[in-house]
Amino acid sequence: MSIKEVLKSVEHDSTLYAGMLAYLGDTEAEDYLHSCVTKGKIYRTPEAAERDANYTNCSSRDMFMGVLLGANFGTILSVINYLGQNKGRLFPDVFATDNRNKVGVIGWGQLWVALGVLPFFDKLSLVKEIGAIKYIGHMLLGRLLLGLVLVIEALTVYKPYQINLVYCALMFYRKHGVFGFWDKLTMKVLYNVRLKDDGVMYYLLGNKHKVLTTMRNVEHNCEQTKLNVHGPAFGWPPGCEPYYFAHIYPSELYVRWMKLASKQINK
Fold first, then answer.
1. 250 preceded by cis ω (within 30°)?
2. Can you say how many angstroms the Cα of residue 15 is from the centroid of all Cα atoms in its chain?
3. 3-state secondary structure (DSSP) of residue 206
4. What residue ranges do the domains of the chain occupy?
5. How many beta carbons lie within 10 A of that of residue 208, not counting itself?
């Protein structure tokens, strides 16, 4: 099944999930992800990017996280440039119904992390070169707050997709080798306080047995879903609602991610 078919079930959030697949080495998803970004502007789908489609809430911080997680360095630089030229907004304000189009201090802090292990003054020079120097204060303040905010979100968010974004942030920080202490604390909160029980959690815990067991279960349940005339695939736990039914009737997207996770953790 092609990546477009797999992501069809989450079309309006496809950039986020493409990033999660790309994080595990899915090159098809990585190509898809980059086709969602045009001159630093992030869209929900490649088709929207190709048409330069502006519509209500045509992007969001969720899409921003997908790009942070799975895009290459050049794409990250183009995003920083776009945000620097557009007051930190992912799309024109006239199309926004709320603040989802503003990356905020935390988003700028994540972009500072996304610049990698470059020395401080090299990063500073790069930010100036790509036209975002006026946001350097946001970047440095955000960088200081990221770990604490991660733990607070793990404790307080209540919607399944919000937990998914905490998972994404953990992956992103691990990718860049930062926040070891905050990572461990966040995992304790999710596992012991929030009692999370899904394949993404077990992958982040490094629990090989649980990941492989979950993989077998979701693959079996996905096949059963295709035969079940009483209900559709509910999607990706914990990224969609209701959480329970997403376990029982997983989508092809979740199965694809779990297959990649199983290969990674088996190495």
1. no
2. 8
3. coil
4. 3-147, 197-267
5. 13
